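User: Fold this, then the next.

Assistant: Folding the first:
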Amino acid sequence: MDSNDLKIFRAVAAEGNITKAAQTLGYVQSNVTARVQHLETEFGVPLFYRQRGMVLTAEGEKLLPYAEQILHLFEEAAKVMNKSSEPSGRLAIGSTHLTYSINIPEIFSEYHKKYPEVNLSLITAKTEDLITRILNFQLDGAFVKASVLEEKNFISELVYKEKLVLIASPEINDLQQLYKLPFLLNSVGCVNREMLMRYFNSQGIRDLTYIEFNSLDASINGVISGLGAAFVPEASIIRYEKAGLLRSFSVPEEYSLVYTYFIRNKNGVVTSAFSEFVRMIKESNDVNFIREDKI
């Protein structure tokens, strides 16, 4: 077994398909098939079910995190041995769908123009999925949202505080009217939704109607069109409220303050590419972090 076998195994597991994995890796399909079969022979167990694609067996599931760690160590060794201080190589960043206050597309664009040698990628997912990817060394860093974040295996490089507010159309004059509306919320697991549920419970509010909107812009536009109410970052609706398109309502801080953390695995190597990305975030005019930890 060598690192290339594990790289192929990881790609097939991610793509769920030999052909797609071969295309991703730039290999001949027959070579990918042969290397997977070689691994299975070496371990003496099947690693994939071969029905309608390639699905990991129980043994394959056990191997995957070890493969991730081994490949990560190879990648980290290459980074350490690279004497150049100019950012280059891979930089994989994760983010939730609701990281509104940090203008990630703009930062990515600026970063790519300045450091075209960096292979930059952005993965969007739920906070729990991003944390898992950070712990498994699949991401170099990630923006995650939470009311409180406690984990011994990663470091929060930056923390940004954000206030959530209830919003409804301008015709809604008070909270009692607002509570009667359908609520446009993200799916279960979203910190905004969890905070709102806590607030409703504190008020003894029950029997609400929910409509799932996994997009901040869609939720705001839904409120403007009169579809219902929503619980969103205050910074995201200021211009709409000034234009008279909606009305906002505050709730107590214990139910409205959430935090965006930029985290990394504490055992990962801090590369020049990563350090420069953090610097750009800090210098963004649209972002006011409440803590900046040295890296």
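Now the next one, as you asked:
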Amino acid sequence: MPHRHNPEQNRLLAALHPHELQELLPHLQVVHLKAGEQLAESGERLSHVYFPIDSAISLFYRLENGGSAGVAVIGNEGMFSVAQVLGGAGIPYWATVETSGHVFQVAADRLCEMSKNLTTLCDILLLYAQASLTQIAQTVVCEKHHSLRQQLCQHLLLINDKSLSDDFRLTHEAIANMLGVRRESITEEAGELREQGLIDYNRGHVKVLNRAGLEKQCCECYSVVRDEFTRLLGNER
């Protein structure tokens, strides 16, 4: 594996007992995912699962009328898809890469088999599944009760966390797809944030200039999800 990537860059892998991590390491491969790449269709059983390092994977539900709705964003706090390991096989969502970056890839069957004998791995995956339910539930709350500005700030903070950088590639179109709004609406709101000196963006790149300012304009949903992940999985290293 490239020296600049290590398991502690993914929260689930970092939480493993050292001897269990050593057993898993030979089966992990670092791969690069490109923004826009589709990882899974609804109901598809994956041959591999992914532990993100500095990329973000978005889950969507595709409506019968052709529209779609964002469900969750997965980054270095988790994995895609935990259902493969816990016996659920496919999930009713399709997954795409929202921001380019690296992941640890491992064969799904191999991880399933190892989880039967690695106690902390099984426990951690169950706790992660519980935390993920909070994220999905909070997404519903946010869409119903909070403004587009608040949702945009929350999304930028999430991607900032998962990218391991204040400068990341993220298009207005990708944000609009996730939040279920017109791209023009995102461009307008992002312009306001840039005028306030909170972010800058150019040619599909976003740079966070004032994270504290973004957090002030964000709704409580960001901290609710963050605190639940901390409660269940411990502090980030």
